[in-house]
Amino acid sequence: MYLFAIEIGIFIAFIIVIYGLKLNSKNNPKQVAWSFAVTLGMAAVQFVTEMIFSMAAYIYYDNYSIAVTSNILMGATPMIAVFITMLLLVKIAGAKGKAGIILPFMAVLLIVSAFLSYIVISRRWNMQFDLNELSMYDMLLETEEERNLNFITNVRNFVNFIPGVSYAVSVIVCSFNRNKNKKEEQ
Question: Would you give the DSSP letter of residue 94?
């Protein structure tokens, strides 16, 4: 849940920067309302999507391929959602940004995120089904391996924010350069 709060915080900060520093090409109060609506709407869509993947993983947890696939998709959903939300916010604001260089970079990060998700679910799945009793699994939750898996999960969560945040930074830099060039021409 804290990841949704972080995402919404990033989106709100981006909206404030775009409209506060007047990096948008047109200034319309409806745009600000639409920006906040898109932010909350995309967070809701992402939440529902992750919930569906989570339920599939929970229902079919004894099927290794379904559990792994749904957890990989659940791990990659935030990256795609953050990037699409940033694209929508830029389009609504009318700011200038280039996503061309970020898309191949995002594809590589999606593979990294999927690999990290695979490591986590594979290790947790093997830990759970290697034990004779489920109560022993509860004791293992505090082990070094579980702490390592939590660290890998946190790294994956950080990687998921990189494309969206880098696109936001590129939009801000492009807008500052465009505004600076306009001032030099005058």
Answer: T
Q: Are 151 and 93 in contact (CB under 8 A)?
A: no
Query: CB within 8 A of 91, min separation 6: which ones?
Result: none
Closest CA to 39 of 88, 99, 103, 106: 88
The backbone region for 26, taken as left when phi is positive above 0, alpha when psi lies in -120 to 50, beta otherwise, is beta
All residues at 6 or more sequence positions from 117 whose CB lies less than 8 Å from its CB, including other chains: 71, 72, 74, 75, 76, 156
**pTM for the predicted model, two decimal places:** 0.78
pLDDT, one tens digit per residue, over 93-121 is 777 777 777 888 888 888 998 898 888 88
Distance CA 76, CA 92 (A): 25
- DSSP letters for 115-181: HHHHHHHHHHHHHHHHSS-HHHHHHHTTSHHHHHHHHHHHHHHHHHHHHHHHHHHHHHHHHHHHHHH
Under a CB-based contact definition with an 8 Å cutoff, are residues 77 and 49 in contact?
Answer: yes
Nearest to 88 by CA among 99, 73, 77, 102: 99
Backbone φ and ψ of 96, nearest 5°: -100, 135
